[in-house]
Write a structure and sequence with these properties.
Layout: H1 3-17, E1 42-45, E2 51-56, E3 62-66, E4 71-76, E5 81-86, E6 92-98, E7 102-107, E8 112-117, E9 123-127, E10 141-143, E11 149-153, E12 172-176, E13 182-186, E14 192-198, E15 203-208, E16 213-219, E17 225-232, E18 239-241, E19 247-251, E20 254-258, E21 264-268, E22 277-281, E23 287-292, E24 295-300
Antiparallel strand pairs: 1-24, 2-3, 3-4, 4-5, 6-7, 7-8, 8-9, 10-11, 11-12, 12-13, 14-15, 15-16, 16-17, 18-19, 19-20, 20-21, 22-23, 23-24
Length: 306
Amino acid sequence: MNQRLFGLIVIYLFVATGHSPAFAQSPVSSSSPVVASGESLIKIGDGFSFTEGPTADASGDVYFTDQPNDRIVKYSFADQTLSDWMKPCGRSNGLFFAPPNQIIACADANNELWRIDLADKSHRVLVTPTPQQRMNGPNDCWVDQDGAIYFTDPLYKRAYWTQEIPADSPRGLYRLSSEGTLTKVADDLIQPNGIIGDVANRVLYVADMGAKKTYRYSIAEDGSLENRTLFCSSGSDGMTIDSQRNVYLTGGQGVTVFDPQGKLIETIQVPARWTANVTFAGPQRDQLFITAGDSVYTIKMSVQGL
């Protein structure tokens, strides 16, 4: 292809999509157990400060956070556009969609947990620190079938905090019932971070960044956790799970995929120093949406999100 023709194609892509064209990288091996044959990572946006917390709504569109800029950004699959959706947003970090039309947000500006209405962007504070129940900064969350919310509460001190939190403040994993009862369900984690659950099998996965491990818990009938077992010797910033019960972890190695027994089966390389979070998205839930530093990516999968 001559240089002039290539330049015209680039300009066309820029105008048509509204953002810089994504140049395909080398496709993942055709023998990948999870990535669709011949597919490669596509950058769909950049120029952010630090992207986190992606979650897909009922139509498959994605909401994710750019926490240093205190905003939630929306990606629409129908027209392939990115737009600021909510700003400010309480310095939201992890997000999780709660049917039929809400998002749970770990809003750590004031160490709170929010419920945001997608229709009008109004929010309700579900958890806020009290003298009896101090929060360090809710980080990531997952919503169970009965509406109960499990969320991690590590301690990553923020420059924008006006509150003072001691360095030895206890970290924890909490459950907020649908009736509003808050319970600490695990206090044996050094720095709990990524979290994802399997509703049908009554299993919860929680990453401990401090221990560099991910654990699997059984969810008891009353919502408490039991039977903690080591899932794999790797921590994770954010997590997701697919229809085959493979678990996706993030961090410095890109996206690492483990089978249900905790065996590493795939590493999806991401051109970033840190891959923060991941979720399944798109109308068919077969697009893996990845937040990584100042950029966000998608890749077509052969599996769907759970």
